[in-house]
């Protein structure tokens, strides 16, 4: 991915954050206080700055009730067929007890 694409994604994320804040009718000062950052940091988030830490984004998503969406970002890619194969591979195995 190139920098232009990444910047575009961050800009869109920032716009969605701003929109969610406005829907809640929160001022920048109120929302910044809730997520534990300064107003300038919130402005950076809303403009798509890559300088904002992931922890700050997690706090913001938690306040907005979207924290469960974070799990989808890098969820393991596992098909049902792969899961079935793994289960079949280990289904016949039994643990052997060692005598002491």
TrEMBL record:
PROSITE patterns: HTH_CROC1. It comes from the Bacteria. Residues 17-73 form the HTH cro/C1-type domain. GO terms for molecular function: DNA binding. SUPFAM superfamilies: lambda repressor-like DNA-binding domains. InterPro entries: Cro/C1-type_HTH, Lambda_DNA-bd_dom_sf. This is Helix-turn-helix domain-containing protein.
């Amino acid at each position: 991915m190139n920098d232009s694409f990444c910047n575009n994604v961050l800009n869109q994320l920032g716009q969605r954050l701003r929109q969610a804040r406005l829907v809640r009718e929160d001022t920048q000062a109120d929302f910044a206080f809730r997520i534990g950052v300064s107003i300038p940091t919130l402005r950076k988030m809303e403009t798509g700055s890559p300088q904002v830490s992931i922890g700050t984004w997690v706090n913001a998503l938690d306040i907005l009730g979207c924290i469960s969406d974070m799990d989808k970002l890098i969820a393991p890619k596992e098909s049902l067929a792969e899961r079935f194969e793994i289960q079949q591979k280990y289904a016949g195995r039994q643990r052997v007890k060692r005598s002491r």
